[in-house]
Design brief:
The complex is a heterotrimer of chains A (303), B (291) and C (452). Chain A has 303 residues and is an alpha/beta fold. Helices cover 28% and strands 28% of the residues of chain A. Chain A is built from ten helices and 15 strands. In chain A, the strands form two sheets. In chain A, strands 7-6-5-8-4-1-2-3-9 form a nine-stranded mixed beta sheet, with helices on both faces. In chain A, strands 12-11-13-14-15 form a five-stranded parallel beta sheet. In chain A, helix 1 links the parallel strand 1 (2-7) and strand 2. In chain C, strands 3, 4, 5, 6, 12, 13, 14, 15 and 16 form a nine-stranded mixed beta sheet that branches. Chain C has a six-stranded mixed beta sheet with strand order 7-2-1-11-18-17, covered by helices on one side. The structure holds flavin-adenine dinucleotide (2 copies) and adenosine monophosphate.
Chain lengths: 303, 291, 452
């Protein structure tokens, strides 16, 4: 297996290190600052392709040749990886297994149904797959080692590419609102178990009372009840609080893999069996809407 | 032309949908079926683009069984000019779906196409269909957009791309960063559900029943590798080796880490008032609150 | 008539009315009443549109309950072959409870488990949708996710259409049938209700609890698709009302019907009252271990005939719960059958009116006549005293106390004291509880008149 890692300015994407580890240290790094990024590999062998800003069409084209002999290609399920993988599968004419939580040449576990189920697949041939960030973990002691060998390949192959890509005007740093959130030590999260947008007004108020910041699941940001910068998860913000309180959140892997490793998790849910309840230190079966109201009542006298 | 891709899916939350075995998912109960928030946003953007460029037409496409016509009827009611359903079983594999969509877009539409998709579908949820469509058609792609600005017709006329449609968009990348992109047709874009709320269909639009075209693609069916499905169990995570003078300390470090592998207290059933008290107790006990 | 209706009659309304109407009949609300009205009309070849605010018929309506669909014999022959039924009620119990005691009257009839059947438990999202499908198959046009926000009037003040919350959302028709459920906005807007008083309504709250089918079969003593309907008096912690437990296939519905003013005064929350009912020693073993699937609350018009509104205006009829035709009298809780029948009769009256070319209140008079001639108003008349009786303090707490105490002493063996006679026990217990003989006799007579 070989990892393909889209690199931006020498920085690995979410799940990049895990993907390299899943492939036993073999990787192709493509993007900008690839040589510097190769340090993250923790040994192993690397091919670097200095290819500028993200261009999935052109990159897939450039990768077709070096990957032709590789039967099993794995990308991180980060935004860039997720968007590049199908293009690679198309040029390599391979099957795509997207959103896996574990990958070996003979057994792939795919997260399905919004991350509440796993499908076990036994691949019969060569494939391209993406690995869900945050589900594997890595042994931190093996990081920050130079790779044993580095080969670099020129981009575009043959000097030009005729594959269309969109034009990047600029890359924006995370906005401040998002950063507060990402660094907050206490987060109250709300999910689809909260049945009205007013419940999120209450949740925001409760967060303030508890010196916490408010987050939400994708179902909620999709509804527009909460701004998308507050979405916690693989396609949202990755946070690392010490306290997380989940109200009406099922705990889909795409959500929990953006949660970091809180010291304490409280979950309020009507379904005692959902993954969020299994993760929680304190799991309470109750109506989350009413619990939020009740908690706010407790703070009522303070103003 | 503007092609908008809509997937007919069961809209109930994941836990309440009938679970599929392998890849053969049961067809949704039509009462609870429709399109995802992301696909609704895609349709709204298609209509906004048409509002900005009145010469363009909006064609709604779906790949699915006859019951999927419902989403096309809704699209027509809200303002799509035409609707085409490409006959296929429910939950046909992503690559096949993309080939069907691409074939339809290639044969029926012109060279300056803008293809708008939702960023991922509710049930399959890999977001790969739009990228496959782009690969099939050789179009540029911009996926997972969280904000779009349609360039006004003036700007657009001044564009060196001539008759192409132009959009400026924000694409979400990891770590809260975003890319600001200039997109010109032909292109495939996919949008997140939060980017736009679909306008309400006028009542007359709903009453006026228009016909839906049905296409049968000349594409060989695909038989991707199937698997078996079971409830989600987190994979054991690789963690730093625990540090501590005694074995007990090390075990404590490991089990207190709150990771997926560590299972804590059993769920307790409480009424809301008791639940609030219990939460505040726990917060006090863990020193987040003054007792 | 309310002021708003006058304001509504704008010039725009009039030009709309001058155009050819969009439909023959507009039916508002695809509950049991609306679907039956639309079905009758579509079958008669009328152009009918059925407007529903939910995403599909029954989506917003309460889950699980007992329906008595016999009226459907007239609309859908052999309805039982296709109706989405959970279980057929073959066992009916009435339970009188005090804090620690319970007296149950248990009736079983296997005949209720065979065609033509009696009552059945059904989920409203299934049942209402099934009924609406029949109307659509007959040619009615169903438009969902659309809320009617007002009535249109012509220059003579007659109802001539509706306004909805959609853009370009007005529709015209000579007849509008309001089937929009309890607290009907349309009937109120048209001024068909007199002074509305909270004591005319009760609040229904319900939990749906999941249990494996075998467990339900065993706990309730039934098999296959046979089911149980239990009505409970005295389980409402002092708030006037009653309780119920129904068996579905693999869930049970547990709920309370609570008198509103009392509920407000008690400052007890409905879910607390359900929780305490579920802890009663006679009830806990039935519901234990059930996983909460749904909690819902809904108003019920409960005052019977005394709050019956005007049923017809020019170009307008009101049916079902919108017309307060729900029969809620203690151990009776029937609304769906009254809704279906009144919808059907309104549909028939609209056909008559349209054929005669007279859709004024007078031209639609066939509606009220049909209700008077059938069970719809006959049952209401018969049971007109029942709501007050069932919700009286005596019925709510004294009689359960009396009945259970009397039976307890009948069965108690107090040796060496000899067994007292029944008459003595009743007299002693009545005195202890403080029930006057006069009241007992009067309630007995009321009860006999109502239920006898
Ligand atoms: C490619 C991809 C990327 C994704 N990225 C993200 C991401 O970044 N972040 C993210 O969050 N999601 C993401 N998702 C979506 C994710 O898969 C889940 O669908 C989502 O996290 C579920 O959100 P939820 O828990 O709010 O909703 P649900 O899964 O619908 O869960 C609702 C929960 O509320 C409970 N509940 C219901 N009523 C009550 C009540 N009254 N009181 C208490 N509890 C109640 C239910 O039991 C249930 O557990 C992504 C999905 C895909 C496919
Ligand atoms: C807790 C509880 C338990 C009950 N149990 C039973 C029982 O066991 N058996 C029984 O027979 N009855 C029972 N009933 C009563 C029964 O539910 C009603 O009598 C019956 O549903 C009335 O039918 P309907 O068609 O008049 O109104 P509804 O069923 O209320 O339907 C009204 C429809 O109109 C729609 N609507 C409302 N306003 C608008 C608008 N402005 N625009 C468009 N659409 C609109 C609504 O969405 C709804 O679909 C119970 C009621 C409650 C609350
Ligand atoms: N069967 C289908 N018919 C039409 N469009 C589809 C279909 N499946 C997926 N799409 C489009 O592709 C997007 C992403 O879907 P997916 O790749 O399945 O996550 C959806 O939001 C739709 O816009």
């Amino acid at each position: 297996m070989i990892a393909v890692i889209p690199v931006r300015d020498g920085v690995f994407p979410a799940g990049g290190v895990e993907t390299v580890a899943e492939c036993g240290g073999r990787a192709v790094l493509i993007g900008s600052g690839t040589a510097a990024a190769a340090r993250h590999l923790g040994g192993g062998t690397a091919i670097t392709i200095e290819a500028g800003t993200f261009a999935p069409g052109g990159w897939a084209d450039a990768l077709a040749k070096p990957l032709a002999g590789e039967a099993h290609v794995v990308l991180p399920g980060s935004p860039d990886g997720r968007d590049l993988a199908p293009r690679l599968a198309a040029v390599l004419e391979r099957e795509l297994f997207a959103g896996a939580i574990s990958i070996t040449p003979t057994h792939i576990q795919l997260a399905r149904q919004g991350g509440l189920a796993i499908t076990d697949v036994i691949p019969t041939g060569s494939f391209v797959a993406t690995l869900q960030p945050g589900v594997r973990g890595v042994d931190p002691t093996t990081q920050s080692m130079d790779p044993d060998t580095i080969n670099s390949i020129d981009y575009p192959p043959g000097g030009s590419t005729d594959v269309a890509d969109v034009v990047l005007i600029e890359s924006l740093a995370p906005d401040a609102a998002t950063m507060d959130h990402a660094e907050s030590p206490r987060i109250l999260g709300g999910g689809a178990g909260l049945s009205t947008s007013e419940a999120f007004v209450q949740l925001a108020e409760l967060s303030e009372r508890l010196d916490a910041s408010m987050g939400a699941t994708r179902v909620i940001t999709d509804r527009g009840w909460v701004g998308h910068e507050r979405q916690i998860g693989t396609t949202g913000v990755v946070v690392d609080p010490s306290l997380y309180i989940a109200f009406g959140i099922s705990g889909a892997v795409q959500h929990t893999s953006g949660l970091g490793q809180p010291d304490h998790i409280i979950s309020v849910n009507t379904d005692p069996h959902c993954p969020m309840m299994q993760l929680a230190d304190l799991a309470i079966v109750s109506d989350a809407n009413a619990v939020i109201t009740a908690l706010l009542d407790r703070f009522g006298d303070r103003g | 032309m503007i092609a908008v891709c809509l997937k007919w899916v069961d809209q109930r939350p994941a836990g309440q949908r009938p679970e599929g075995i392998g890849t053969s998912q049961p067809e949704p109960d039509s009462r609870f079926a429709g399109v995802s928030a992301a696909d609704r946003a895609a349709l709204e953007w298609a209509l906004r683009c048409r509002d900005a460029w009145p010469d363009e037409t909006v064609v709604a496409l779906t790949v699915g069984p006859p019951a999927a016509d419902a989403v096309l009827r809704d699209a027509l009611a809200v303002g799509a000019s035409r609707a085409v359903r490409i006959e296929a079983a429910f939950s046909a594999p992503s690559r096949f779906v993309a080939r069907c969509l691409a074939a339809e877009i290639r044969t029926r539409l012109d060279a300056q196409n803008l293809v708008i998709c939702g960023d991922y579908s509710l049930d399959r949820g890999t977001g790969s269909v739009p990228a496959f469509v782009a690969a099939e058609l050789g179009y540029a792609q911009a996926l997972g957009l969280v904000g779009l600005t349609i360039r006004s017709p003036d700007n657009h006329g001044a564009d060196e791309q001539g008759a192409s449609m132009a959009i400026e968009a924000l694409r979400r990348v990891d770590g809260g960063r975003r890319d600001r992109l200039a997109i010109h047709s032909p292109a495939v874009i996919s949008v997140e559900g939060s980017t736009a709320l679909l306008r309400r269909a006028p009542l007359r639009g709903l009453l006026d029943v228009r016909s839906i075209e049905v296409a049968t693609p000349a594409i060989a069916p695909e038989h991707p590798t199937t698997g078996t499905t079971r409830p989600y169990r987190p994979r054991p995570r690789m963690l730093p080796a625990p540090i501590g003078p005694t074995a007990l300390d090390r075990v404590k470090v490991l089990t207190a880490s709150g990771t997926a592998a560590a299972v804590h207290g059993d769920p307790i059933t409480l009424d809301p008032q008791a639940a609030a008290d219990r939460i505040l107790d726990a917060l006090a006990q863990w020193s987040y609150l003054q007792p | 008539m309310a002021d708003e209706t006058i304001v509504d009659r704008t010039a725009a309304d009039q030009t709309k009315a001058d155009r050819a109407p969009d439909f023959d009949v507009i039916v508002v609300g695809a509950g049991p009443a609306g679907s039956c009205a639309a079905l009758v009309l579509a079958r008669a070849g009328k152009r009918v549109v059925l407007l529903e605010r939910g995403p599909f018929p029954g989506s917003k309506n309460m889950y699980g309950g007992v329906v008595y669909p016999r009226i459907l014999d007239q609309l859908i022959p052999q309805w039982w072959l296709t109706a989405p039924i959970q279980r057929w009620v073959t066992r009916r119990q009435t339970m009188l409870v005090t804090d620690t005691k319970a007296l149950t009257i248990d009736f079983r009839s296997q005949a209720w488990g065979e065609p033509p059947y009696n009552g059945a438990t059904a989920f409203r999202p299934d049942f209402d949708n099934w009924l609406a499908d029949h109307a659509v198959a007959a040619g009615a046009q169903l438009i969902c996710s659309t809320t009617v926000t007002g009535l249109l009037h012509d220059s003579a003040g007659r109802v001539c259409g509706v306004r909805t919350d959609r853009p370009d959302g007005e529709l015209t028709a000579p007849v509008v049938i309001a089937c929009d459920g309890v607290n009907s906005f349309l009937a109120k807007q048209e001024g068909l209700y007199g002074e509305v008083d909270a004591s005319n309504y009760t609040l229904g709250v319900k939990e749906t609890l999941a249990l494996p089918k075998e467990v339900i079969d065993e706990r309730f003593g039934v098999r296959g698709t046979d089911g149980v309907d239990i009505e409970i008096v005295g389980c409402t912690s002092g708030v006037a009302g009653g309780g119920f437990i129904y068996t579905n296939l693999d869930t049970i519905s547990v709920g309370l019907v609570l008198k509103l003013p009392k509920l407000a005064a008690q400052s007890k929350r409905p879910e607390e009252l359900i929780a305490s009912m579920k802890q009663h020693p006679a009830i806990a073993p039935l519901v234990e271990g059930g996983e909460l699937k749904e909690y819902s609350a809904h108003l019920i018009p409960e005052a019977g005939l005394s709050m019956l509104p005007k049923l017809v205006a020019d170009g307008l009829m009101i049916t079902g719960d919108a017309a307060a035709l729900c029969l809620a009298a203690g151990i009776w809780l029937e609304g769906v059958n009254f809704a279906m029948a009144s919808g059907m009769y309104a549909g028939q009256a609209a056909i008559e009116g349209l054929q005669r070319g007279d859709v004024t209140a007078e031209g639609l008079g066939g509606y009220r006549r049909r209700l008077e001639e059938t069970f719809v108003l006959k049952d209401h008349r018969k049971l007109r005293r029942a709501p007050a009786l069932m919700l009286s303090d005596r019925m709510q707490s004294m009689y359960p106390d009396l009945a259970t105490a009397v039976v307890e002493r009948m069965f108690r063996v107090d040796n060496p004291a000899p067994k007292p006679g029944l008459r003595t026990i009743v007299k002693q217990e009545r005195k202890r509880i403080g029930i006057r003989r006069r009241d007992l006799a009067r309630d007995g007579l009321d009860g006999f008149r109502s239920f006898g």
